[in-house]
């Protein structure tokens, strides 16, 4: 599908890529990995055609379509969410206009037996079939499904895009790309602005998609669930592993050990050769051997080993005062903005030393409760901050409070104390500020770089209650490992608002779920919470959302007893009703498919080629089949979920 041969890219003295070759095949699911600055985003730009290589060939067939989601893009602010997303179907709309024009031309003309008229009918039939294959008139339903999957509510569809944050507008762009159904999807950090439910929806979408996928992501669980092949950019070339990311890590470790042994052997050979040359350079009897060794030395191709793997950064929080036993106590806390209820009756206690996660859809109130804890906004009820609590708070706007006139190094040098002052360069390197980047002024940093720098400042502050709001959005995998290790070793209390399951796994021992104006406490780690969540929730069905009612502020990880006789009887009624709906839907589909075959036979007859009634009926029946297939799928999904609860 895409063939890369002999790729070379030069920005400075040292090339970014040299002699890189690989192929992206149909339905490949590729994770593009490598240290920061290795050229992952540059590679995606080259594959998308937005950037040209210095040398080499990137071959893409003419009929291959590519969808590219960059980390940052220019966004439109002059439409509603629905109107902006509808732009994904601009080709459908143009095709529909051409069909209507041809249809009108066939109605106006009377030369039914002419070659031109027959050619027009054939062209109309082919174009119409292609139009129906691309979804025809069903794109509105696809728009709604995709936007809902990415976290938008139906109330959001008609809101202007300018009312949404940059992260939500990036979701709109992602929706447009997915709806175009390109042959190849190039995704650069697609999960940065998604919550857990939206990430899981995207995983399922990509698993069912016919497109090839090449993605860059720092969400380890996401790339493990989506990809089956890993391309590593290292030392200016690409290593191709035909395995998932976790398996790649094992193979990479083995390859690196082999590299190190080969590197050490080569260094010994070079040292021995140089020693021989120096020892016998001026002895006439050894002149021939010396010249042979010099030529031998010149022919040696140095083995490179990626430096980043040689460094392991361990970060420890500075000592701080011991807080009271209960750093945060909420009693019937509520928050509303006018008529909009964010949450109510929130009663929870966070003990000293606990690491807890706040999870839920965007807009469910996670950051709002954090602001209540910080005392930044008014609320109802009682909220008590414990004795001796010193809060360290990381939010997206923290990055805007940095001093623009300082360099990256000086920003950290001002807050580092003790032994950490001797390790500033290592710390900056672990968070992607190594080398010359540490001399950059804060004012020239991107939003992501400023966020990472604010995170480092927080990690050096003596606090005993950490509150981190989406801390991993702009961190790569090694940096996230550094942060995770530091929080695990932290003696104080931590509240983490995050959608990153891999980051939260093994880090938190309690999860607070924000949903429908309530906050529900779940004991256990993030995957314990997800298992309970899936077991206890039934997806949207035609007869409405069916949920198990959970008492407020009760632990949902408790074992649920078997359904009673009456409950089973009621459940069986729903199953029987849904089975009838499935069978009736299948009968309707069979009847319509039979009619389509009849219409195909009629339209193949030349005397019916201009019969607009048949053409109109054919279009109408095809559309109804698509709609009925969608209903059948929803009925089947609901039936499967109901049976799982028996």
UniProtKB/TrEMBL annotation:
> Which portions of this protein are annotated as coiled-coil regions?
568-631
- Which family does the record claim for this protein? Belongs to the ABC transporter superfamily. ABCF family. YbiT subfamily.
Q: Which UniProt keywords apply?
A: ATP-binding, Coiled coil, Nucleotide-binding, Repeat
PROSITE patterns, A to Z: ABC_TRANSPORTER_1, ABC_TRANSPORTER_2
Q: Which residues form the ABC transporter domain?
A: 2-260, 328-541
* Superkingdom of the source species: Bacteria
Query: Which InterPro entries does the entry mention?
Result: AAA+_ATPase, ABC_tran_Xtn, ABC_transporter-like_ATP-bd, ABC_transporter-like_CS, ABCF_ATPase, P-loop_NTPase
Can you name this protein? Probable ATP-binding protein YbiT
Q: Name one GO molecular function term.
A: ATP hydrolysis activity
CDD domains to which the protein is assigned, alphabetical: ABCF_EF-3 (cd03221)
